Amino acid sequence: MNILKTTASILALTAFAAPAMADDIKIGVISVLEGAFAGPGMDGVRGAKLAVQEAGGAVGGNEIEIVTMSSDASPDSAVNAARKLIEQDEVDLIVGPLSGSEGLALRDLSKSYPDVTFLNGSSASQDTTLRDASENFFRFGGDGAQWMVGVGDYAFNDLGYESVAIVGEDYSFPYTQVLGFMAEYCEAGGRVPEKFWTPIGNKDYSSIVYSIPQDVDAIFVVLGGADAVNFLTQYAQAGGDKPIIGSSVTIDQSVLDSQGPFKDLLVGAPSGTPTVSNFEGEEWQAFVASYNEAFPDGFSAPSIFGHHYYMSTKAAMLALEEVGGDLSDGQEAFRAALTDLEFVTPTGGTMRLDENRNGIVDNFVTEVFEREDGTLGNRVVKVVRDVDQYLGMDKDEFMAMGPVSRDNPSCP
Amino acid sequence: MKNAPLLAVLLALPLFLNDFWLTQVATRALILGITALSLSFLATYLGVVSFAQAMMAGIAGYTIAYFGPNTVAIGWELPFWLSIPLALVLATLAGALTGLVARRSRGIYAIMITLAIGVAFFYLTRQNYSLFNGWTGFSGVRAPQVFGLNLRAPVPLYLMTLAVAVAALVLVAGFVRSPLGLTIQALRDAPGRVRALGIPALGPIVAAFAFSGFIAGAGGILNVWYNERISSFSVGLGPIIDILIICVIGGLRHPAGAFIGAIAFVLLETFAVDLIDRDRFNTLIGLVLLAIVMLAPNGLQGMAAALVARLRPRAATPKTSI
């Protein structure tokens, strides 16, 4: 027992040892710094730090201090991290989290802490802001459906795919991506006769490979990382030759670099994403230069996670500047400034929020191409500006579609 | 009554600790300790290490979420005085079923079979939407209001958890002294002889698992009130292993070890990040756990007991079992 008490008191002392200055503004950053997502998660933290550095580390004479916390990508751990940041480290703002179900959990938690402002990191669940929204939860970015805007239209009108089968991981993010695709694709006249949902981390796709109908024109693959590589390999080995359409997480450089028999299937594959690392826009190039200077040991260009944490933190910096660092009255003035904020994003568009405090964003349609040396790259086909959460539809019509699920939307 | 001073200190904790320490550290440690106690009971007295305790706790938690107020519009609301007993009954049944399946297994085979049950339950919750709401699970689960008192408020939640923890320890102590408890320990030490005496083994083993399911269920109910949510992540491999780690670092020789392990675990998990470079805190957690296992093979509880014994050489050797 004695050892325990000593340990406890040492730990307690350390925790209380560094009291913050009264005027400091503390930002808690929640990201995934352990497990499979540690690489992307660390890039999220870099994005947040970059925004603070660019603001000079202070706003209106108030030092900005960043406190990072790790979650393991589960909602429970994101909630624990947020509670510690708020109650123990006494942060004023929280930037994060990384993944969708964490976002929903923090949205719920934010209702219990009305004096803290939550700025979403890169989580892209639709309902975080669309249904049951929270007054103090802001997302300066899009949801998974917004990230697919432009692809359905491109697949039907430019590529001429009249029917598409879908293979996706069985949880909310792929459902939302499918909504973003199908909203446009079905409207344009396309059909989706069959959807196959598989558990995340599945290794054996043979039952799906052999069930894909022969009469579809393409397969929309909503799988990420190793799942995508496994499915594409098994599909190609079974002699599958349908063209591929990728989700925002499928056409990743790590998938493009994989040695597999599926290379031919991927060339020409379109996908949708809010972040293209080699985009040639002027603002993006400036952003990449600033990122590389600040983090020589980071990625060669910011990832989707770095990009989104950056935008949220930048929004916080700009709004803080506008109110001179004033966070009194339950952060009322600061939140009003956030709500009315407009700024130019690294992708060159104008970021602003809709009535649910969700970003109106730029989105890219990209396509895989083969370089002269035989490696695969991803290039921009078109940029869609001002994508809102209703995907350009009438609000009531959009809400009438109901929450996404395995079977919603549907156009067989 | 030798534990009275300790109990008095624990009861007085709300006077000294702020909400963060009381809820995030003390209450959370007690809740994890209750669930871990269900495993250390099985490991100590039946000699079986079960990886299905997170499943039993999860069943109770999901029952509370399904039959309680939540924000995902699944299930229907029952008054808490119905949903709580229902959750405990279902967790006990889950424990009994696990016992029925694993009754002939020991050692590594029991670990494999209970691990399979735990992981199967995890995938069920992740894929089933009508009962478990899949990946997303339940959110907005609120603890009941009793006579206008919100049981999720820091002090009531802490005192309630403390009461449940004490009750669980008393129950375990009573159970292992009962004829059934003695039979279970006999099965642990000499299963062949017990059978030779004509005592059927099935009943006691299933009863032990059912009892551990009941305790895990109590922990699961408190956990869902504490987190205000439950999802497939709450019953995954992470929580399954956490429970085992807590038992091992606490020590398996005395039921109280589960709680000591839980305190060490929660302190480490909460504060390691403040002590070391934030990208490397898992290394620190791992090193400390390794050190505990190497320096104190009987866990922190065993270490504390040895220390007390050395300080008071003439006192009777502390009872380590029963």
Automatic annotation (TrEMBL), chain A:
Highest rank taxon of the organism: Bacteria
One Gene Ontology biological process: amino acid transport
InterPro entries: BCAA_transport, Leu-bd, Peripla_BP_I
Pfam families noted in UniProt: Peripla_BP_6
Keyword tags: Amino-acid transport, Signal, Transport
Signal peptide: 1-22
Gene3D superfamilies with a match to the protein in the record: 3.40.50.2300
Residue intervals of the Leucine-binding protein domain: 25-368
Transmembrane intervals: none
Protein family according to the UniProt entry: Belongs to the leucine-binding protein family.
Name recorded for this polypeptide: Leucine-binding protein domain-containing protein
Source organism of the structure: Pseudooceanicola batsensis (strain ATCC BAA-863 / DSM 15984 / KCTC 12145 / HTCC2597) (Oceanicola batsensis)
Upper lineage: Bacteria, Pseudomonadati, Pseudomonadota, Alphaproteobacteria, Rhodobacterales
TrEMBL record, chain B:
Membrane topology: Multi-pass membrane protein
One Pfam family hit: BPD_transp_2
Gene Ontology terms: cellular component: plasma membrane
GO molecular function, one term: branched-chain amino acid transmembrane transporter activity
Compartment(s): Cell membrane
Keywords recorded for this protein, A-Z: ATP-binding, Cell membrane, Membrane, Nucleotide-binding, Transmembrane, Transmembrane helix
Keyword Transmembrane found: yes
InterPro entries: ABC_transp_permease (IPR001851), LivM-like (IPR043428)
Transmembrane segments: 82-101, 108-125, 157-176, 197-218, 230-249, 256-273, 285-309
UniProt protein name: ABC transporter ATP-binding protein
Species the sequence originates in: Pseudooceanicola batsensis (strain ATCC BAA-863 / DSM 15984 / KCTC 12145 / HTCC2597)
